[in-house]
Structures
1.
Amino acid sequence: MKIENKKITTYQICLVALAVGVNIVGGQIALFLKLPVYLDSIGTIFAGAVLGPWFGMIPNILSGIFMGMTVDIYSLYFAPVGIVTGFLSGLVFQKMSVKKGRIFLAAAVISVPGTIVSALINAVLFGGVTSSGSSILVQMLSKTPLGLTGSIFTVQFLTDYADRCISVFAVSTLITAMGGGMVAKLSGRINNNGTI
């Protein structure tokens, strides 16, 4: 199998597997602590940032299937959000340097399309009640003039954006710490001999 005229390397397969594991662990921490953020897209954003948009879509599909079949059925339904997030994170990290103040802009670009998809899934399929801690906020706000649909979109935007800020910051910090040589090796731009 080839992507962009390059063979898929062992490093890329391992990085996708690592990203799936990070998504699962982060998602479980958020579920266990009932956090109003999800922490299940750090691996997805990392894979997208290092390997590009097409690889960025894979980790959330796999972690969504795994979590959906084992501990959290809602993860299956929200897999399209992860696909959008992974694809956009790959594009954002290719097109701009994501450091310091640009983290907030990058998080916004990555989160807004996924937030729309997520809010629609939440409103249409679940009526604002899912396994995440944000469901509590939705139910509280649903009694305000926002109503249920308005509260779903408001809470989804706020929690998705906060989640993506945390994820983009973590990924940006990790990529900076790894250095360009390691990132190039993982991405398949250079091989074990150090050649392109």
Note: Confidence is low (pLDDT under 50) at residues 1-5.
2.
Amino acid sequence: MIFRILQFSAMLLVLSAPRILQKWFKMQVPLTLYIVIAFFAFNALVLGDGLDFYGRYPWWDSFLHFHSGIILSFVALWFIHVMMAEKSKYIYMNKYFTCLFLVVFSLGIGAFWELLEYSCDGLFHTNAQQYMASTKGTLVSKKDIPLKGHEALKDTMKDLALDLGGSLIVATYGFIKHDEILEKRNER
């Protein structure tokens, strides 16, 4: 029960993050970002845990990690554009550095997420890191059997690889569109 309360509290925090950015930092947050974050939170918490998509569909966690890599990279790209608009005379982002930043930002948040999963598994005896051989669901019972050795690390490494894959797609998009985006910014 404590795990569920913390999980839904985290969902409320994630859902309110764009409004917090808008209010505290006076940043214009695109409606698309609100929608994508709400969609992701719904998929992860309501469908994933609430309706046990993690347990029923073994690919569900991979689907979400791949999409989180994409979402986080677009958040990083949006952040760069906000910075460039505010300080356009002082900041020019090289396209290679922009791509590197997108990937590192996404992987950094992905690694932080894996640390949270590890902590929840230890504190609440959950299976967020999929270290149980007998279930793919988040909640485990005393009957479940843990994986051993290297097998227990596969989920974490796969999740980070999927975060990387999603971020590389956005980095490629950012690389291709970089000059076009800068031209549009300079026309304003």
Note: The chain is about 75% helix and 0% strand.
